[in-house]
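Reproducibility note. Readers wishing to regenerate the assembly model reported in the main text can use the exact inputs given here. Chain order matters: entities are listed in the order in which they were concatenated for prediction.
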Amino acid sequence: MSDRAFAGASARTAAVIPAAGRGTRLGPGTPKALRALNGTPMLVHAVRAMAASRAVTLVVVVAPPDGAAEVRTLLDAYPLTGPDRAELLVVPGGASRQESVRLGLKALPEDVGTVLVHDAARPLVPVDVVDAVVAAVRGGAPAVVPALPLADTVKQIAPRPDAAPGTPEPVVGTPERALLRAVQTPQGFDRGTLDAAHEQFAGQHGEEGATDDAGLVERLGTPVVLVPGHEEAFKVTRPLDLVLAEAVLARRRANDGF
Ligand SMILES: Nc1ccn([C@@H]2O[C@H](COP(=O)(O)OP(=O)(O)OP(=O)(O)O)[C@@H](O)[C@H]2O)c(=O)n1
Ligand SMILES: C[C@](O)(CO)[C@H](O)COP(=O)(O)O
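Running the prediction on these inputs yields the following structure tokens for the assembly.
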């Protein structure tokens, strides 16, 4: 189904939030999306970030496979408010991010024409980024990704699957940094394009699949474009990211009472 099939105002925009990961790099404990940031679960921040866009009328949360009921109960304790509040669905996820997104897409109703895929682990993305991604898809781009230039220089290494962790790694190249971008979410898609990509590559994960949804679309040969991301859309991956996220929230509260 594509935006064009529902030309005009009838094509809805939905956000799929993969939230089924454990958060291994964050360390042992509650699944990452359910951990609190300044007292509110990370997932609630992420849902609110998508619902903050007036374009988004449906949010599909993809929960840990055995935790959908628990996640539904949690989200019911933090109801969305306002006259334009988005509808909320919770579905069970899979063993990889890619599989979780695919299961989220299957839950979308027919009248959704534009889909955002947003990591629960990027709870602080500003609404301006969400709106810019939606606008670019509605403007005709089949796949849109927020991205930032890199601060660090990047080195390429040769694959060494049997090397012990910490062993010095020979460098094989230095890509030109000015031509690289670090990509974020929400990534936005024409619904038919994203469905086709996920169906074509279902069952291929990790390096055989893609680490982001746009990567699957690229493999179809469909063009992908970048729009400016935002430093506050960073992914909470390691313990220090929790400190940064809580500092950002504290600054927002001090600045505008958010
Ligand atoms: N089976 C999975 C794995 C990941 N995710 C989601 O994909 C997003 C990005 O993944 P990442 O930050 O890597 O989360 P984890 O996989 O939980 O992290 P880690 O690799 O440290 O375990 C997160 O919102 C995570 O919940 C998912 O829905 N289903
Ligand atoms: C989708 C993503 O957030 C874009 O940067 C990223 O690729 C997810 O990777 P992860 O290793 O599953 O966190």
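We highlight two features of this model. Residues 97, 119, 183-185, 211-212, 235 surround LQXTBERG (ligand 2) (CB under 6 Å). The helical segments are 42-51, 68-76, 97-106, 127-138, 191-200, 213-220, 239-256.
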